[in-house]
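question for whoever is on the cluster today: can someone run the full assembly for these? two chains, 1019 residues total. i dont have access anymore since they changed the login thing
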Amino acid sequence: MTTTQLDLLQGTLDVLVLRALSWGPMHGYAVARFIHQGSDGTFTVIDGALYTSLHRMEERGWLESEWGLSEKGKRAKFYRLTMPGRRALRTETTSWNDYVAAVARVLTATPELAT
Amino acid sequence: MNYPEQAPRWRRYLRMIRPNVLADVDDELRFHFESRIEELVASGKTPRDAREIAVAEFGDVQEVQRGLVSIDRRVAARRGRVESLRDLGSDVRYAIRSLGHSKSVALAILATLGLGVGANAAMFTLLETIYVRPPAGVAAPSEIRRVWRTVRFREGSQYWPGYSYVQFSAVTNALGDRATTATYAPPGKAKLGTGESTAQVQLSDASTGYFSLLGVRAALGRLYSADEDRLDNPAPVAVLSYSYWERAYGGKASALGSTIVVAAQKYTVVGVAQKGFTGIDLDAADIWVPLGSRARGRRGALSWWKSNSVNGFGILVRPAPGVDIRELEQRTTTALRRPEAAYGSSDSTTVARFGSIIAANGPGESSQEQRIAIRLAGVAMIVLLIACANVVNLLLARAVRRRREIAVRLALGISRSRLLRLLLVESALLSLAAATVALAIAYGGGVVLRKLLLPDVHWARSPIDGNVVLVCLGVAAASGLVAGLIPALQAAGPELTDALKTGSGGGVVRTSRLRITMVIAQAALSVVLLVGATLFVRSLANVRQVDIGFDAHRILTTSVGYDGPSASRDSTIPQRIAVLAQEIRALPGVDAAALASMEPMAGLSFVDFVVDEASTAPAHWDPVVTGISPNYFAATGLHIVRGRGLAPVNGRAPAEVVVNETMAKGQWPNSEAIGRCMRFSDPTAPCYRVVGVVEDSRVGQVLEAPQPQYYLPLGNIPDSAASFLRGYYVVARIDSQHVADITSATRALVHRDFPGGVPDISQLSQHIEPQYRPWKLGASLFTVFGVLALVVALIGIYSTVSYGVNQRLHEFGIRIALGAQLRDVLSLVIGEGMRTLAVGAFCGVLLSLAAGRFVASLLFGISPGDPITIAAVVATLLAVGAFAAFVPARRAARVDPVSALRAD
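^ ran it for u. tokens below:
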């Protein structure tokens, strides 16, 4: 494995999970694969943290879960966004974009800094 | 993208099962690992490597798992709360629907439970008012003490709350600054207004200190001041109770300064006491006047506050902080034992005790009504038990009928706890409805009970309040839940397949055993109540048969009263009454009319006398004297046993006396009374010779030991008694058929002969009727409850037998098909019912014998274990029970074997 490992902040992981679920209900493993594929392998998510994030957001009321059958016919726990979850995704995405833009500005404004 | 397009359908039934958090987390993670490993294997890894990679990607599996479980537990708990509320709503709807299907059962439960709870609520409210609730409007009532002391009565020593003012002063001095004291006369009925007014108010004499000790203020105007409260000349001022002010004056301030005539005296209203305060006795006071107001204007050698014969005052004490009650009691005892504080002869053995401000909690004897009230509370509880047994039976029958439904629900995945809750919701609903019924019964019953038990008490409060509502709700909920829980537990635990297979057949044996136990309990408790009822009814009959000496229905007494105190001592009155007697004698339906110094059974007079012989009379020998005209014995129907009556002469009568049998025996035990001398006030006074012995009669109470009595001629009263042994009363022997006519004719005569006079005419039977009241009360209330219990128990027997018959139609069909006769089936079914009843009756007899000692003191002329009573009750129960079993038994016997066999 040669991909860069990034330690994701908790809030960042939440946004990614919410984003994944905005496409429709999915089980935890599908969320993990969505994030993995979406990042093109730039970073990997520790799966344990992902599940913690799912359960925590369910507790917060952003997600709902229910048991259903996976694409392979196995019993799996599916998560889906609730209305509060959608609202959270919107605000978190905006602030993440602001953050990225700010970081990018800083990075481009100081060319003399060595990397 | 490989996730499903659509979520699988919501599986609602899964939520019925209580979420298992641990298993869920485990399943979720297992799915994750399986999927990941599968994918890695598909991409060419060995299963072993794949597993290692998956675990490495995941991080600390156990740690994460623990975290997830704790999060999910919180989620599940919150969801559980929300869902249980939502479920409760649907449970309630379901319960209402299902109760609607069996209306008769629901109504029977409502009635039984409502009655049981209502009776209890009414009884306990009454007891609470008598024994627990401190008087309203009093500051720190628990600190205030009533002073009691032992007094020797003929029947023995008893705690007594009444004192003379002399004794009050002695106690006040003895306590000094260790306590505040106050005295008052408990409220009594007093005539309101003038003339033949029949309006009455509750009048209480109270010192200024009474209000300040109790911490009572005026709501309007003022309380009377210390100088208005002077013993020798109390000001004619009155304070009204707030509720009387509202009732009589409409709560108008103009009441202040108005004049009110009470007990033939005028008072000016100066104030209204604070709201809620109606004195400190059960009997509410309407009007307070200064101490001694009623003695105002009375002539007498001794001022009332120095006399020991004015002695109805209660003493209240509020001890100073930190003072030992025992020490105060000791000081009070010492003070009361001093000669100057005692009646005539000093009572060196009296003992003072301080009791609660709630009089019924004091050391004094409780009245027969109060004792009946306590027993009735026990009876009410028995009724509630019977009601509960009945409700259990009814719910059980319902639950059994619903076995199949319940089994189906369980098979469909409803959890047992949910099912239990469903059934409990039903009984809770029933309880709630029953509580409403109970409240109505408690209100009505409370009013009736107060009237019956304590009719002389002038109640200040409504019989129902917030506490009663709570009691009703609490008792109904408790009994409803207990009664609902038993069948619910039974129903929730059937063996599923069993119940599904055999329908109503499964588990019958166990259930019907419980039902039979309930019937036995009901029968036993009914026996107890019926035995109680019979004992009271027979006591009443026995008391009625007590010979009081008089024929109470045939004696009509007439006297004349005046509004002013001075007029009543008019010296011409006895003469004018004598004329009135002759006029009454002349009325149709009157056989005789005599004069007497007092009404039969309504007063006691004593005169000091000596006899020539050495006195051998027993201790407390106080013969009661009556001044009479010679025809008194003819008028009252008292028989002369030996000798003769008083000589019928006009003018001055010879110095003769007639004694009753008890007096003859007690005063001259060893010789004939006739011919002996009685000398009044001193041994040298002239001799009143005993000329006859008359039969005993009661002096006051229907039930009293025979009292020594003697009769002096009104035509020759010794000087020492002349002031009060005068002919104030006309005692007429009448035809009791014509009481009304004679009464109105007599009233007309009084109005003609005594302008301004107020006639007081009463039949002796009316006067003594209240004395039978406790027995009538016990008899009627116990009978009501007893019959109620019997009816409820019979419904139980009927429904149990009937239910059993329905269960066994199949069996009866076979029996009949095999040749059983009508009689065989009847005796089989009735026999089973009767066996149950017999067991119940037997237990009931044992219970009655055990409970007997609680009522023994309230019975008259019959013992609580009276075999005839018990036998009669058992026979009644069995006879009526046989009838109740007969109806369903006949149905069993008429089963058509073909249809019964085909049905299953």
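summary bc i know u wont read the tokens: The first helix of chain B runs from residue 12 to 16. The two ends of chain B are 60 Å apart (CA to CA).
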